[in-house]
Structures are given as structure tokens and as C-alpha cells.
Write a structure and sequence with these properties.
It is built from ten helices and ten strands. It is α/β, with parallel strands linked by helices. The protein has one domain: Alpha-Beta Barrel (TIM Barrel), CATH 3.20.20. The strands form two sheets. It has an eight-stranded parallel beta sheet. A two-stranded antiparallel ribbon has the order 9-10. Strand 7, helix 8 and strand 8 form a beta-alpha-beta unit. It is globular. The relative contact order is 0.15.
Length: about 250
């Protein structure tokens, strides 16, 4: 069995088609991440409609920059009220590509902390986005007691070691096919901390990704680690169920 620990299933125009494609590829678990209030509402609906699709509720750091304080407050209130319907808080974190000033980075960090505190209070794991902000994201999450999944982790070996030290999990996606830094991470991380993702429908090499790509991702990870795919599948299944408690 295969598992997609991080995608945006709400962005598919025909989710029922993607569910069928995933089932044919033996992808049994999909976690659809949210970025704002509307995606949270949509993901709750999808998770109730399709048993294999679970939802994560949260405010993406880039989306936060487009929201006013009142709008953010309303979205966070919705998150807390509906978190029992979710398996995680996500996707949350920092994105210094879009936060191009101290004020914007401070805003992202403040609401990253707020959402980590919500996750702690409700006993939920968190799915972390850390583009161009890996060290700072590691510092912040290490001060909290949440189970942490670093989605599309792209840090250095030293940053990987720091994240491993406090028990972080890591999801590897289709970029493992062509990105040497991602292959290094896939190769070096402990097997009991490894998950797979697509970040669908994000495109790779001009094609929108989808959860049914996960078997290809597992094959590439197995090649990078020089391991058997069947053993890798079993380990990822165990990690998925342990992290999300499903």
C-alpha cells in the first residue's frame, strides 16, 4: 500500500476521478492540506465524502500575508472549532521567498507559533512548510511538543541532523527523481521518519502531479537508498499510521 502525506486534493476539479486513479495505484491514504479558510471548508467536505482522504487544517504562511488580522482571527476560530475532523494542522510554517521584509517574516512567525500552540492543545501533529527558512522553522518547532512533518524538506545535511534530533518526520515527493539535494535527504534520513508526498497538483516537468504518482516516488527513494521497495512500502505505511494516528 502507498500513502500521500501531503497534497492539496481540494484543488482538483474532479476529485472523484483522482480517488479512482489513486485506488488503482494502491494509494490507500491521502492527506489534503489547507492554506486558508475556503480550502479548510473544502477539505473537510472531501474527507467526509471519500474515506481514503484525510484533511489537515491550517493557514499557509504565504496566504497569511494576503490576509488581514480580522480575517486571520476568523479562520483560526474555524480551525479550532473543526480540528476534531482533521488528522493534522497543516500546512503551516514559514516562506521567506514571499516574506521579503522583516515585518512580513514576523507576521508569519507569529501565526506559525499560534498554530503550533493550537496543535499542542488539541494533540494534533503539524505539517510544516519551510521554504528558504529551514533553520528558523526548526528553531521554532523545536520549542514545542508537536509531532512534526517537514513537507518537501530542502535543508542542508546539518539542518537535517538537527530536525532528526528532536524527532521530525520528512516527506519526499516527485522531486526525488531529478533533484540531488532531495535524493540526499531521502538517502540519509532514518527509515522510521520517512513519508511520501506529491504536493499535488503542483507540476513537475510540466505535468500536474497527483496521488497516483506515489508508487514512482517510492521506487526512486528505494533506488536512492539501495533498498527493496516492498520493505520501504511497509515502513512508510507504519510511519504514516504512527504520525497521523489513523
Amino acid at each position: 500500500m502507498f500513502f500521500d502525506a501531503h497534497c492539496h486534493f481540494n484543488e482538483f476539479e474532479e476529485p472523484e476521478v483522482e480517488v479512482l486513479k489513486a485506488k488503482r495505484a494502491n494509494v490507500q491514504g491521502i492527506v489534503s492540506n489547507s492554506v486558508d479558510l475556503e480550502s479548510m471548508k473544502r477539505n473537510i467536505g472531501l474527507s467526509s465524502e471519500f474515506p481514503g482522504v484525510k484533511c489537515a487544517l491550517g493557514l499557509h504562511p504565504s496566504n497569511l500575508l494576503l490576509m488581514g488580522e480580522r480575517e486571520i482571527g476568523g479562520a483560526l476560530a474555524f480551525l479550532k472549532k473543526n480540528l476534531d475532523k482533521a488528522v493534522a494542522v497543516g500546512e503551516i510554517g514559514l516562506d521567506f521567498k514571499h516574506a521579503d521584509s522583516v515585518k512580513k517574516r514576523e507576521k508569519q512567525a507569529r501565526y506559525f507559533e499560534t498554530q503550533l500552540e493550537i496543535a499542542e492543545r488539541f494533540g494534533k501533529p503539524v505539517i510544516v512548510h519551510s521554504r528558504l527558512a529551514v533553520s528558523e522553522a526548526i528553531r521554532i518547532v523545536s520549542e514545542h511538543g508537536c509531532r512534526v512533518l517537514f513537507h518537501w524538506f530542502s535543508g542542508t545535511e546539518g539542518e537535517l541532523e538537527r530536525a532528526i534530533e528532536f524527532g521530525g518526520f520528512f516527506s519526499v515527493g516527485p522531486a526525488v527523481e531529478f533533484d540531488s539535494s532531495i535524493r540526499m535527504i531521502a538517502r540519509e534520513m532514518p527509515l522510521d521518519k520517512l513519508l511520501t508526498e506529491t504536493d499535488a497538483p503542483v507540476p513537475f516537468k510540466g505535468r500536474p502531479s497527483a496521488p497516483d504518482w506515489i508508487p514512482r516516488v517510492v521506487e526512486e527513494i528505494a533506488r536512492a537508498r539501495n533498498e527493496d521497495t516492498s520493505g520501504l512500502e511497509r515502513a512508510i505505511e507504519k510511519n504514516f499510521k504512527e504520525f497521523f494516528r489513523v
